[in-house]
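Ticket #4471: complex job returned nothing on first submit. Input attached below:
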Amino acid sequence: MAPAAAAAVAAHATGMSLKIVPSLGKSEFVGTHVAQSAASAARVVPRANLSARAGGYEEELRQTAKTIASTGRGILAMDESNATCGKRLASIGLENTEANRQAYRQLLVTAPGLGQYISGAILFEETLYQSTLDGKPFVNVLQDQNIVPGIKVDKGLVPLAGSNDESWCQGLDGLSTRCAEYYKQGARFAKWRTVISIPNGPSQLAVTEAAWGLARYAAVAQDNGLVPIVEPEILLDGEHTIDRTLEVAEHVWATVFKYLAENNVMFEGILLKPSMVTPGAEAKERATPEEVAEYTLKLLRRRVPPSVPGIMFLSGGQSEVEATLNLNAMNQSPNPWHVSFSYARALQNSVLKMWGGEPANADAAQKALVYRAKLNSLAQQGKYEGEGETGAQESLFVKGYTY
Amino acid sequence: MAHVGKYADELIATAKKIATPGRGILAADESTGTIGKRLASINVENVESNRRALRELLFTAPGALEYISGVIFFEETLYQKAADGKPFVDVLGDADVVPGIKVDTGVAILAGTDGETTTQGHDGLGARCANYYQAGARFAKWRAVLKISDGCPSPLAIQANAEGLARYASICQENGLVPIVEPEILIDGPHDIEKSAAVTEKVLAAVYKSLSDHHVLLEGTLLKPNMVTPGSDAPKVAPEVVAKYTVRTLQRTVPPAVPGIMFLSGGQSEEEATLNLNAMNALDTKKPWTLSFSYGRALQASTLKAWGGKVENVEAAQKAFLTRAKGNGEATLGKYTGAPAAEGASESLHVKDYKY
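Support reply: We reran it on our side without changes. The output follows.
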């Protein structure tokens, strides 16, 4: 076993974060007049293993990413902040209490057979530390279900000063410490969501900030053993055409990949969570699933290096059926990366309604979740036939949606 | 975003055609000065008739063009004819080989760096490309050069060369020529293969960012990178190792929209260049682009030796060329089993601090 991997294994065994720091040699320092004195030479940490990156977690990150990106499976995004979860609960007449949030999340993670179609579940911090009513930690429930636990690590969107009324994502302060804690608790991947607004530009400032923040987060996450999901969501809001969406998406992703490279992020150990390339929600011309697939695959082929193992699309307000149909259209022929889903609303909407907060409905609600997951699993393999789904057609788009 | 101009469909089709598995590019675009060195090495005078004769030898070698999808010309050669009066572009056209043209005008030193360079040739490039298109060329090539040493390549050198390549690529596409994007990182140096991989990753990342910024249509381009190998002064490694590191580097940097990656040989011997390419194609891993060759020295070295400038040696020389072309064609399919030894096939073609 390579030294880096062996050290990583030893670190896990002892619970310590033992890191092999792959230091950059002097040849990579800025400028041409780099000091050559013996003193400064001593301060440079000798390279232990040139191929060691990502804080020594290289092999584990590869494995985790590969596991999440397994055939026929995708991610259940259930990391709604307390405020957002409150909106969900309110929509079915429930109060936003910790007990209700716990009950709802328990319903989701204990759904029998969920692990056949779901490879990872993104949790909010509160949920990562919660347990079932019997006292079994949610992370253990998920692990037993063969589902990798993940954790939302960003601290939300705030106004970006100097921009055209755009937002930026906070969360870098103390991120390394938090990631290490989450890893200890059992999380193995992380997620950070920033947004780009087409009606507001986007300005170059907003794009640069979004991409750089994602790159910094990704490097820190990998350094602490968490596979970073890289999510620059290009919001659906707006009247823009699908061509305009493609134009913005190409620019955003080029910038993201450039900054990821500059931050020495290991691409084999990341996952992407892009928005599909569609017209804006208020655009006059709609697009068929085949058109969405054509444009989205064009974007991916032009921007995503094959070393990235998986692309897990967000649903961003599409109806449950739309999200499944579009994913299916993208998987009609082999792709150089796993093309799958990381859905929240598009997996939970019907489930929530069916549950309505009633324990008697829990069984049926869980079945609905697994059913929806199964349909998306089929879509991931390009085998979805499009059942007669009524409520699932409901658009989940909310104008000016704040997560 | 990618600019879809009036030549878009043609560019995409041409790039795809050049990247057909089983075939690759013959780089025959040595400048007059450089071809002079080649001719001198076999005691042949550097006059136009000899330059023409050498190229005719290559383009009419029986069976060889089956393995060649494109030929890069130097400007003089684009307008030359075979002995029977047939223009070279037509000789190639008859064999379904796409003619290409070198369009850069050489390198210039970047002040304030440790001898690093940027590549020149943007002035009037649009008009020149349009003329070359008229003359039958359908792809172009521009060579940027970087080197590895303490402090090199510097961020400036990487940025300047990436931008230069992107600007060139954009102008080519506007004028109907598929741009071959060539960011060569010289093999010179004592560095190990890990260092080569790290530098190549950084350079290619910068190149593709610039191509994106300049709205270049990736489906209508080809990449001509160096393989990832140890430096010329470092111990050699097996072809399988070169293959592993090279393909890993490309997987991390080259979007699948690029139809073909046509490696430069950069001083490797003929046999090395073929073995390394073969090993890459034999690898069981994600390779959504064609992996092929764009060789100059590594296709012509033994041919030149066999020719020696003598008419009576043409047949033997053409056989030597066929051997290399066929071997490399097989290598693009991972099916190369090793060629019979030809004089000079294993000879290193490395020239320290090589000036093209």
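Residues 1-23, 38-51 of chain A have pLDDT under 50 and may be disordered. Closing as resolved unless it happens again.
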